[in-house]
Amino acid sequence: MTNMDLFQTPRGQAIVLMAPALAVYSLFAIWPMIDVVILSFQDWNGIRENRDWVGLQNYHHILYNDPVFWVAFRNTVIWTILSVVFPPLLGLLLALGLNQRLIGRAPLRAIYYLPVIIAPIAVATMWRWMYDPFFGLFTQMLTDMGLSRWIVDWLGDKEVALYSIFVAYVWQSVGFSMVLFLAGLQSVDKSLIDAAHIDGANRREIFKHVTLPALRPTITIVLVLSTISSLKAFDIVYGMTGGGPAQSTQMLALWAFTQSMQIFDYGRGSAVSVVLLAITLVIVVPYMRWSQRREEEAR
Amino acid sequence: MKLKTIMYGSLAASLLSTAAVGAEDLKIWTINYTSDKQVSALTAAEAEFEKRNPDVDVQIVMRGTDEHKTALRVASGSDTGPDIYAYWAGLGLGGEYVQAGMSADLSKYYESYGWDDRLTVPSLAFSESFAEGKHGIPFRFSGEVVYYNKGLFEKAGIEGEPANYAELKEAAGKLKEAGIPAFTFGGTVNWHVMRLMDVILETTCGAEKHDALMAMESDWASEPCALEAFTEMKWWTDDHFLKPFMGIDNRQSTTLWFADRAAMMLEGDWHVPTIDENSEMSKYGMFPFPTGTGRLYGFAEYMYISTKSDHADLAAQFLDMFTSDEFQAEHIGAFGALSVNRNVKQGDDALELHKEWLDVFANAKGTFVNGDQAFPLDVTTEYFRIINELASGNLEPQAAADAMAQFIANR
């Protein structure tokens, strides 16, 4: 078989089509990931020519001596749990509502989706102003309602700051889940719903036994995407508090960035990144395999 | 006709491109300055130097603070980068690059241009601190003092400016009785609240012990003055700050100060034009934080010549022009109350508080720098965290001192 013949086979064509993308992807995604893993075993400040091999020292430091790592870890876990519950749940409810025949359904869908297309840093700026403890929207509203005692330092009190950011995150991300669920709802077989009606099922039973099982692949996608995006939560936290007050809203992704790009300790920053990558893989891979198996069993 | 135009055009273009190839580029990296005066001074320097050296193309690249830091870090690992870079002069910032060999030794230029005789002594303090030889040239030296609202002081029955720390605390007590918070700070930018901690440390420890703590040569946990400083800091943050403060930044804090919501701010000489632009200069007074040591709290910004520059002589020529009597006189006040050039003084038309600043600089018995300039970056980050925890009431003074000591020990 000549070279020309090879390019005319489906496999040859696939290789030709994939090669440029694979080269770019390897250079700008795969290699940096490998380099981050290597860096996590080295000491480098970005200036020195040589990177010193330090073995597990960076991991030891972040796990045992870093006063912020475990705060960031705890916040990432809390954020992930909240992100997996609230935006998908609210997105599902919105999708169910907007799947009905309503007047103004299309504009409403657009309105709910609108925050998704706003840059996270712009969302952060908007909400930071709304949370201003002196002149912000919430402070003014509570003052006008005579509820001044409820005013707190939304982004300055470490007990509430993380949750204040999370509210902004929900506002921004709920439209994304909603759109996926709306797409999923289009795939629910209408004949099954009609059959259930004929069999005397009420709306709750139809939802539980027909709609929800049909939405299972969508739910899997939404949950996996929510988990991944929450584990790498960065921009909105960076924009609203920068990890403060007193590092109380630090997240693992932001702490990896801070260590590398602000403290310029690339070794420790990389170690945090590798831990985050490991956590992501530990959570996402088994879940995807489990849900894949369930889907195959259901066929 | 058309053909002729194209031919002449091509000829002109090729001549221009030949000239461009022959021209030398002088790349200068600096942070974005917010004041128009500062930007104008830099732009004027670019134009003036190009006028004096027609074959030179000066390119001043201004970036946001974090972007500037990152760009410089990336440049340090590559062969490209600036000929001159502006940076803060402390150990954790400019000092790190000096120690890493990224700053060229300028001793020969200091000698040939006579910079030692031209520049003020406090501003030169960092040029020999971090490596052999002389590194960088100061273009700005900033001091920080307490600015106060005269009307609010009067309302609280405070007569005169506090001459010592006890009097300052007494004044804070009177202000509290009158329902006026003593200080306003913005907590989101960690360095703002840090300033108070820095000056309290100078007050409780004195110059020598304070320097030893900042150099991490003294133990924060067992040094009584460090504990005392954290205790004093808590005294201020618990009852004498405009609250809430952790969720606002320095600019919001300044706005609140102009709205008479708090009596004092701890700000630099750059604050004088801000007052001039936003309020009545006569409403405010200033005094150095009464640390008792007489040292001025402040920091310097330097321009360094990169060791990777192929145009070191040209870069030195630019720095010489920038700090010259003529150029500094023309742009007096652009980078603070005091020029780094000892021959250049503010005129009679200077802003009222700028004139007071000249006395502050003249009477200073040495200097001490901001914590974020004194520490390496990782310690600065932890210093911020501990101060903020203490200021938020989540950490007791002893625990704060212990946390600081433990972090330094575990580095």
What is the radius of gyration of chain A computed over CA atoms, rounded to a whole number of angstroms? 24 Å
The main β sheet of chain B shows up as: 8 strands, mixed
Assembly type of the chains comes to heterodimer
Question: Helical content of chain A, roughly?
Answer: over 70%
The share of residues in extended strands of chain B comes to 5-15%
What is the percent of helical residues of chain B?
40-55%
SSE series of chain B: HEHEHEHHHHEHHHHHEHEEHHHEHHH
| DSSP strand content of chain A | under 5%
Write down the CATH topology of the largest domain in chain B.
D-Maltodextrin-Binding Protein, domain 2
Can you tag this structure with a few keywords?
A: 299 residues, mainly alpha, MetI-like fold, two-stranded antiparallel ribbon, 2 strands, B: 411 residues, alpha/beta, D-Maltodextrin-Binding Protein, domain 2, 2 domains, 8-stranded mixed β-sheet, 52% helix, globular
Question: Helix and strand layout, with pairings?
Answer:
The complex is a heterodimer of chains A (299) and B (411).
Chain A: H1 3-8, H2 10-39, E1 42-43, E2 52-53, H3 57-65, H4 69-98, H5 105-113, H6 120-130, H7 137-144, H8 161-186, H9 190-198, H10 203-214, H11 216-231, H12 235-240, H13 252-262, H14 266-298
Helix pairs in contact in A: 2-14, 3-14, 4-8, 4-11, 6-8, 8-11, 11-14, 13-14
Chain B: H1 2-22, E1 24-31, H2 36-52, E2 56-63, H3 65-76, E3 84-88, H4 91-99, H5 107-113, H6 115-118, H7 121-124, E4 137-149, H8 150-155, H9 165-177, H10 190-214, H11 224-239, H12 250-258, E5 264-268, H13 271-278, E6 284-287, E7 296-305, H14 312-322, H15 325-330, H16 352-363, E8 367-368, H17 371-374, H18 377-391, H19 397-410
Parallel strand pairs in B: 1-2, 1-3, 7-8
Antiparallel strand pairs in B: 3-7, 4-5, 4-6, 4-7
Helix pairs in contact in B: 10-11, 10-18, 11-19, 18-19
